[in-house]
Design goal:
Helix content: over 70%
Largest sheet: none
Length: 452
């Protein structure tokens, strides 16, 4: 179903509340399985590193660029296809693909095989987020999109929680390979149910009927990018998104190694800590930011950027304290609270990009959000911080990578590795400070636009 006629009654009366609730549940499940596939490699980073003899830079590539490289490359043509074709089919096929490729990761015998399989996971996930966001925009009116997109984004902490705990439990009993293979079956089931139970709505179904909201053939990508480049609000929102995503995913990729190396936790304990941080921080932060933005934005659209600014700025000192503490429990509490404030940026930024564009480019706008968050955040964040960790460890112990790569980290190697990851994570916090600045500039730009 690809008709592009907007509904003049706003809200898609042809779909019942029960159907839209089912849609949100399935979209949240799809997002959850996508994040399970991401967090498993991050949670199992230390045993993978030791078993395959990897450096932190290689570990960062697996958690970052290996996933992001084709996710970002293929995301655009898939998003443009989703502007014209059935989004339900695109999403279901994508879920099946990344589930199969995740299982293939568990069969990899060396770094390059695992790297190529992670690229395959990225290819599958390229067809999920942007079309899902577009579906929400066509099922819910503007004043309800904060809540609806929050439900989709909650798939991230749910997937992180389930992925981290299941990964350490299965790995403890059966090894890290089986943990990667085990996620395939449930993902295939979700893909089939998504295709069988849902249907694609008309574009612009839930938008007010105004000239700016009129649906039609999507404009050329060059025109969309030109429009965003000309407006200061888009420029600063996207730069703020890039910087905050880069630091967020860098921290996420090395949270388990941080607690294992710095605080001497076991893989099971570190997995529980990762689950607590990712679930609590993302759930609370996204809910407060996502549901709150539906209310506070009534005071002015500049709150779509001002709320992220407030959250990110508050998180900076809390992260610094958390990474510098010498005891694991206080560090856990501090990092978790910092994460709650940080996640204020996530939903408001995505809602702003949906509300500030016409319905016929909504999937493209969502793609741009996830492209930046993934290519810069997931793709560059972990390998850059991994490289920084190797660098700092090399300062502490000259020749660190040569001396310590091929064996379990013990003695001087363990001390250097612990200091390296701590200093790398602390240095990444400067990215949050720069992100807060750009969200402040975006808020000022939105306020100027409202006065004109």
């Amino acid at each position: 179903m690809t008709t592009d006629t907007p509904n003049e009654q706003q809200g898609g009366d042809q779909y019942s509340p029960a159907y839209r609730a089912m849609l949100l549940i399935f979209i949240m499940l799809v997002a959850a399985f996508a994040y399970i596939d991401r967090v498993i490699v991050q949670t199992l980073g230390q045993p993978i590193k030791e078993h395959l003899g990897l450096t932190d830079f290689q570990l960062g590539l697996l958690g970052g660029l290996g996933f992001a490289i084709l996710y970002s490359t293929l995301g655009l043509p898939i998003a443009r296809l989703a502007e014209r074709r059935d989004r339900i089919t695109i999403i279901s096929v994508s879920v099946g693909l990344f589930s199969i490729m995740s299982a293939m990761c568990g069969l990899a015998a060396n770094f390059w095989q695992l790297f190529l399989c992670r690229i395959g996971v990225g290819i599958g996930e390229a067809g999920v987020q942007a079309p899902s966001t577009s579906l929400i925009g066509d099922h819910f009116p503007p004043h309800q999109r904060g809540f609806a997109i929050t439900m989709m984004r909650l798939g991230s902490p749910i997937g992180s929680f389930v992925g981290a705990l299941s990964a350490v439990w299965i790995a403890q009993e059966h090894g890290w390979r089986m943990a990667l293979i085990a996620v395939c079956g449930p993902g295939i089931v979700v893909a089939l149910l998504f295709r069988l139970l849902l249907r694609d709505p008309p574009r612009g179904l839930s938008d007010p009927v105004t000239p700016g909201a009129k649906a039609g053939p999507p404009p050329p990508m060059k025109e969309v990018m030109g429009m965003m480049a000309r407006r200061a609000v888009f420029r600063n929102l996207l730069i703020g998104l890039a910087l905050s995503s880069m630091a967020l995913y860098a921290g996420g990729a090395f949270t388990a190694p941080f607690f294992m190396r710095v605080h001497s936790l076991s893989i099971t304990q570190a997995g529980v800590y990762v689950a607590i941080i990712s679930t609590t921080a993302a759930t609370a932060g996204m809910m407060l930011g996502g549901v709150g933005i539906d209310f506070i934005s009534r005071r002015g659209q500049h709150w779509y950027a001002l709320l992220p600014f407030c959250g990110i700025a508050t998180s900076v000192p809390l992260y610094l304290i958390g990474y510098s503490l010498g005891s694991p429990l206080p560090a856990l509490i501090c990092i978790t609270i910092a994460g709650v404030f940080l996640f204020f940026y996530s939903v408001p930024t995505l809602v702003a990009l949906q509300n500030l564009v016409a319905p016929n480019v909504r999937t493209t706008a969502a793609f741009i959000y996830f492209f930046i968050a993934t290519l810069v955040g997931v793709g560059l964040g972990p390998p850059v911080i991994g490289l920084a960790s190797d660098f700092f460890a090399g300062i502490v112990l000259p020749g660190f990578s040569v001396a310590c790569t091929d064996a379990r980290l013990t003695g001087a190697c363990a001390d250097a590795s612990a200091l390296g990851v701590r200093y790398a994570l602390m240095s990444s916090i400067s990215l949050y400070a720069l992100a807060a600045l750009h969200y402040w500039l975006a808020a000022r730009a939105l306020k100027r636009e409202a006065l004109n």
